[in-house]
Amino acid sequence: CDDLNKIVHPYGFIFCDISRRPHGPPVVGIVKPDIGLYRIDDENRGNIMNFKCKNHSSDDMSSYVAHMGLVYLFIEVRKDPDQDIFTDPPKELPPSDRSSTIDTWSENENDGYRVSALGQNAHYAHLIQTRQFRTCVFSLTVSGSTARIMCWDRSGVLVTEAFDYKANPQTLVDFVWRFVRANPAQQGFDTKVRAVDSQGDRHSFLAAITSHVQLQLDLDPETDEKELKCEVDRHFDPGAIARLTIGNRDVWVSRPLWVSRTVVGRCTVGYWGVLCDTKDVVFVKDVWRTNFKDVDPEGDILRDLEEKGVEHIPTVVCHGDVTTEDGSPQTTHIDRFVDDPWVKNLYPQEGCLRKIVPRVHYRLVTDIAGYPLATFKGSRELLGVTFDAFNAVMDAHDKADTLHQDVSLPNIILYRPEKEMKRVGYLVDWELGCKLSEVALRGNVLVGTPAFMSFKALKVQGHVHGLKDDLESFIYIVLYGALRWLPVKSPFGLGSWLTGFFSAPHPNRIGDGAVVKFMNALERTYTSSLSSTQSTQVIEWLNAAMDLHYNGVANPLWDDGKALRKMWERFLARELPSNDRCVNSVPGMKIGEGHSLHVTYTVATSSKDLYRHRDKPPQRLPRPTKRLWIVDDDDPHPATRAVKRLRTGTGSQTP
């Protein structure tokens, strides 16, 4: 680090050895890079010193905790040159031929190591992206005396050919020198985010969130003080509040409810926010949407549905693409290389790079800031709020000719309107919503959440999504909710039951869950064994819905949803348990439990930095499987997620 620090010190930066341990509690699988670049100007020096490794003096600036909320770029070091992640072409090849072999993989004992090492670097980039407001992340990977520069954004990763930094250090020196002299936007920060320093603004944010939590959970500040504080802390960190400008409105956000666990793709982040002018609590969705002309932003879809009279959907407060300092949208950059000659030589097969798509940074604010369906209190609420979401699907189809295409447990929200006694169900996340006339035109694309998709959508190649598929998803939502949070039993064992029915564990075959769902539709192989002493009405509803859907053969009465609506209304007219909730814990099954993840961010602006920390690291890591480079979560089925290898032909990529 000493030689590099001679370059970066004059600009207020320092390279530190952060290989000793990560910041935060010990969690299996948590790893850390070897070297991190930090900022150490007078204002931020104290923040860095607070995260120093133990057993080092206060004057020792060479070793720190690997706090990824503070790192500007990272370096991963391997002593052996044979441990290089990538393989370059022979040096004697002319430039015109080099690009055709830069991606060559040698079949040797290092093959598995390379995949693991790439996954490790992808994990580091992911940790920075989930702890900071970022547009891209720069890194270096070093193997012996050779190094490569990497740039990660939401469409992919760009990698240089290897260069010998000992024989020719100028490439490394130029990159580091340019990086520390670059402005925050060029370094990969979202400069449209501002830190909130005013004590009055922090108090207003806290007061609004506290009041909203009391309303939503019907809590008394005196008798439920501990629970109230716990719930407020899910959304509020006193030292970490940011101000976002979205459309023509400003909104405060703090801790997100969830973050994406992939390096590339939509990478959705969700918050409870507070409007700066009215102090209303809203929901803020931050996403990197696909940048295609024929795909409408979610805000436009919701406003069209609202104009057509669709109920039980959130109302758009404001939305829009995030812009740069010059007013242009924040977009990904890696996808711009797809049409370059060296890339076409590298990937001559048609459609090989279809997963590397252009993306634009987009934020949406809606009025419904509620709790996930997983928090329902009993059978009455489970069937009631899912019926509300069912009506949203029916309204969208009948009034607006629109399909949701991702009806799932995480996309149903419980919300208590002011002065109302009960919570209402809202169907959210209309990003995949599509007009009926356009469904077939989008091609053979698997969309939705696999656990709750229809068996035909999972099993039948070329299946065109329809209303009956969205309706079938409600069966699996109620079934999953009953198995996880109602006193429902099965002799098969809950863990294997849920894994078989709602997961697709085989990495190379589509449709494991589809087979189980289809077997159950034919013969009730699984659900016929369900029993309960308190929640028998939910089991009766499931049997009635499954008989209406498929009883040996497909039932045409299912297709338009009218028969299902009548049956559902009859059940809701009955006396249903309102407080029969219990928790059936199943390791590894946390679908729809968004409140388990607390994350806070680093906000970087041209004037100052706001440092934050994350108190619960993710349990799952983005791990590419063999011969895959970067996992894209646009294809919701894990068995069909593609990865693409994309890197530059020669030279280095600098800010």
Spans of at least 5 consecutive residues whose pLDDT stays below 50 are 22-29, 45-64, 505-511, 595-655
Counting DSSP E segments of at least 2 residues, the number of strands comes to: 21
CA-based gyration radius? 26 Å
What kind of sheet is the major sheet? Answer: 7 strands, mixed
Question: What is the percentage of strand-forming residues?
Answer: 15-25%
State the separation between the terminal residues, measured CA to CA.
21 Å
Kindly name the structural category: alpha+beta
Amount of helix: 25-40%
> Count of DSSP helices?
17
* Overall body shape: globular
Estimate the mean pLDDT confidence: 80
Structure description:
It is built from 17 helices and 21 strands. The protein is of the alpha+beta class and 655 residues long. A hairpin with a 2-residue loop joins strand 9 (242-246) and strand 10 (249-259). Helix 6 (199-217) crosses helix 7 (225-233), helix 10 (379-400) runs antiparallel to helix 13 (467-485) and helix 16 runs antiparallel to helix 17. The model is unreliable at 22-29, 45-64, 505-511 and 595-655 (pLDDT under 50).
Please describe the topology of this protein.
Layout: H1 2-8, E1 13-17, E2 35-39, H2 45-49, E3 74-78, H3 95-98, H4 111-131, E4 137-143, E5 146-153, E6 156-159, E7 163-164, H5 170-181, E8 193-195, H6 199-217, H7 225-233, E9 242-246, E10 249-259, E11 269-275, E12 281-290, H8 298-307, E13 316-321, H9 341-346, E14 359-366, E15 371-372, H10 379-400, E16 402-403, E17 412-415, E18 424-427, E19 434-435, H11 436-439, H12 455-459, H13 467-485, H14 494-502, H15 512-523, H16 536-549, H17 562-572, E20 603-604, E21 609-610
Parallel strand pairs: 3-4
Antiparallel strand pairs: 1-2, 2-3, 4-5, 5-6, 5-7, 8-9, 9-10, 10-11, 11-12, 12-14, 13-14, 15-17, 16-19, 17-18, 20-21
Helix pairs in contact: 6-7, 10-13, 13-16, 16-17
